Amino acid sequence: MAQEITHPTIVDGWFREISDTMWPGQAMTLKVEKVLHHEKSKYQDVLIFKSTTYGNVLVLDNVIQATERDEFAYQEMIAHLALNSHPSPKRFSLSAVVTVAS
């Protein structure tokens, strides 16, 4: 049987993103269904988990970067930046892909 993956930001089955410098008096918490991956790379602490409401979640250095539930909002913003930087866009291709798989 594989060993269960743990992470210091997950307590009692809840992921907690707390930053008193960025959001004083606020916190973001998500119920964790399963931790899919955790590693400390040369540059970052990487955590991927499946939440009960946001699907797969990518966390870098204890800060949520992307979730399956609201990923479309990130892609929409990226597309609009490129479209609005050209005076007369005719065709557009967005090649930014983030895959969080179990």
UniProtKB/TrEMBL annotation:
GO terms for cellular component: cytosol. Signal peptide: none annotated. The keyword Ligase does not apply. PROSITE patterns: PABS_2. Gene3D superfamilies: Spermidine synthase, tetramerisation domain, Vaccinia Virus protein VP39. GO terms for molecular function: spermidine synthase activity. Keywords: Polyamine biosynthesis, Transferase. Residues 12-102 form the PABS domain. The keyword Amino-acid biosynthesis does not apply. One of its GO terms (biological process) is spermidine biosynthetic process. Belongs to the spermidine/spermine synthase family. This is Spe3p.
